[in-house]
Amino acid sequence: MNASLSPRHGGMYPHEGTRDAFRCLSREFLQLVMSYLRKDNSDTTRQAIALWCKGQPRWYQDYVRSRLGVETMRLHPASEATTAQAVSTLARTLPQKDVTCLFLLNDGLPLAEAYENVGGTANLVRFGRRTFLRKRRLMYFCLFSLVNKAALRTADAWPAFLWQYRTELRKLLRDDLGQIFERALSDLPGLPLDRLSAKLRQGGRLVVVDSGMQGTFALPLATWISTRFEIPFEMIDIRLLVAYPWLAKLFGERCVTTDTSVLLRVEQSVRDRRLSTGAPSSNPTPDLQSMPSAESRTTKARRSSRLAA
């Protein structure tokens, strides 16, 4: 069964409900990875492929592996020491002056805590697959495909990539998915729109921080904020803890590592914490103070006084 393509997108947007739709949305991803595999067929690259396949339908996993010619790999999380070092590096390299840092949940919680521990002010925003109540998997694949489409056409040049990405996002949002996207972001838990607007208009910067792997949600959020408040995109940036190896050159200093096992450890720590506190995965955006962590008393006291002000 062939995917039905929307004429408003010039044949770019496949409707939900067919396997061909998701194969179509994976086309640029597969081209990028195939090209990279010719240069680097290491365990690091193959583990990154395995991590992308994790959680996808079995038929899709088989499809990706057959197209790329890779075998199934077992995923192993990094050590706590390696992960802590990567998280610490991200926190220390994030700006603190005249900046608003948005950390995407759920996996962004340990990153936000680390940033507060070094003196930053973290804003927790719940934005991910579960944000979209309708056409969730399709929306995710569409946003995923935009990054790969723009990356494939701009040869690791960041300014050109951003321009291409914004162009592709605008095309996508002209269709019915645009209404779903706009409604979801206009009422995003934890997103301080009024305060953010005031800071950006006063010359402040915005950094959207995500755990990884290619900015699937960080990039559309940053782009949407830039467009909504008519802020030059140069005032907005993203940071990733982990990036796919085939995108590392594009992201450059915007990512800390390409070791996907680090992300596995972060995911595991968030999952363990949720189980220990009995919190459901769909709970409201948490306050950092309400979560058990290794924060210092000084950091907690500083945040308490700031919230009371």
Describe the structure in your own words.
It is a single chain. The protein is of the alpha/beta class and 309 residues long. Strands 2-1-3-4-5 form a five-stranded parallel sheet, with helices on both faces. The radius of gyration is 19 Å and the shape is globular. The protein has helices at 19-25, 27-39, 43-53, 58-68, 80-93, 109-117, 136-154, 158-173, 176-186, 193-201, 218-228, 248-251, 260-277, 297-308; strands at residues 99-105, 122-126, 205-213, 236-243, 255-257. The chain folds into two domains: 16-68, no CATH class; 81-277, no CATH class. Strand 4 (236-243), helix 12 (248-251) and strand 5 (255-257) form a beta-alpha-beta unit.
Lay out the secondary structure.
Elements (H helix, E strand, L loop, with lengths): L18 H7 L1 H13 L3 H11 L4 H11 L11 H14 L5 E7 L3 H9 L4 E5 L9 H19 L3 H16 L2 H11 L6 H9 L3 E9 L4 H11 L7 E8 L4 H4 L3 E3 L2 H18 L19 H12 L1
Parallel strand pairs: 1-2, 1-3, 3-4, 4-5
Helix pairs in contact: 2-7, 5-6, 5-13, 7-8
Element order, helices and strands?
HHHHHEHEHHHHEHEHEHH
Low-confidence stretches: 1-16, 289-309
Give the tally of β-strands.
Answer: 5
Number of helices: 14
Shape: globular
Largest sheet: spatial strand order: 2-1-3-4-5
How far apart are the first and last residues' alpha carbons, in Å? 60 Å
Overall mean pLDDT stands at: 85
What level of helicity do the residues show? 40-55%
Number of domains: 2
Rg of Cα set: 19 Å
Q: How would you characterize the largest beta sheet? A: 5 strands, parallel
| Helix-strand makeup class | alpha/beta
